[in-house]
Amino acid sequence: MKLLIRGGTLVDAAGARPGELLVEGARIAAVGEHLDGAGAEVLDASGALVIPGAIDAHTHFDLPVGGVRSADDFESGTLAAACGGTTCVIDFAGAGREPPDEALRAWHAKADGRASIDYGFHLTLTEVPEEPDRARGLFGGLLERGVASVKLYMAYPERLMVDDAALARALAASRRTGVLVAVHAEDGEAVELRSKEMLAAGRRHPGWISEARPPEIEAEAIRRVGALAMDAGAPVYVVHLSSGEGLAEVRSARAAGGTVFAETCPQYLFLTADRLQGRDDEAVDYVCAPPLRGDWDREALWAGVSDGSIEVVATDHCPFTRRDRRRGVSGREEGWRDFADIPGGLPGVETRLSLLYQGVRQGWLPAEAWVARAAGTPARLFGLSESKGKLEAGMDADVVVFDPEATKRLDAARLHMRTDHSPYEGVEVTGWPAVTLSRGRVVARGGEPGDALSG
Q: In this structure, which of 189, 257, 369, 400 has its CB flanked by the most CB atoms within 10 Å?
């Protein structure tokens, strides 16, 4: 296929400028003005923004959580991603304490032949070898398998949580190999203690998750891992930052000389904890960890996205059907027992790019920053910058023609994620992808599966 995209405004790290883009096969062949499009199909992008395909660096497809499973697998999740302008996802391989090779084999089997777009993996680790050479060998072996990042949890004792010694070993191996360490930053022991106290007092409503996992627990974990990263001389990546207090600790660690990258998610930019205060059969659909916060936190996070303190907006896409939410992690037909038994996670892989664009419309960030948070920076941090995240000749033809005036209601029935409810039900956004290309294939048009998927 040869395609000339003409008439739009190109936007990436090089700025916003008029220009044309020529696609030949799976690659961008040329970028400039007045390109020779002989023999090419012409796509008129007049009035549109032409941007690199978005990269969602935080998804959980087909993830078992106790007795239930996240609603989207690699087939439905990547199709929904394409419809929303995302052309690459990085999913977390591993659900618990399985060996690394076993986790990677299992996740490759889940994705192989089913994904509509490109994908990669982070590896979830619950153990790090104590011998430095073995730890370095583990991380080096991951790079050979195309895995450039690992995730460690500071939360969920007895299942996922690692101690500070294991974090320190991982960061030391990171410094030697370049594998980026990502962390779920909540003080797990403090969460467990607070949860037990509340449950003993009969506080079981979904809204009590906010008291079990308050901002100071996130902030303390970030303070600890920031200090460990500085001692190791390695960077660290904080996933799903949810609070102003946590952001303050990110900034403090940087001021002290550490390299701390931060990611937040649309739910923390658009939703607040009041969604957790209604009837329990309604509040249950807004449970995630870390939990939704207050308006002050939401505004602080938008400020961080705007000034670059938060470099990435990903989704933590881990949705569940209404039935599975109500069954609880224990999978009981009689229903969840308390806030700690509710599977946490919200949908977002299809709606992220447009939701973040609302910040451009509000004047909170320029279009170049929108593209950087959604595409350019995740490509750079996770080893994809040689092929993705920029509009340059030789890069993968992952391209989105984004219509800044198109409107879309974010109701579950109007979207392609395999969920039967939407946290943004009734919300209408302005700005939606008109065409999404993945390696030169049209995978979505007007928010619906495109030529390469509709057959």
A: 400
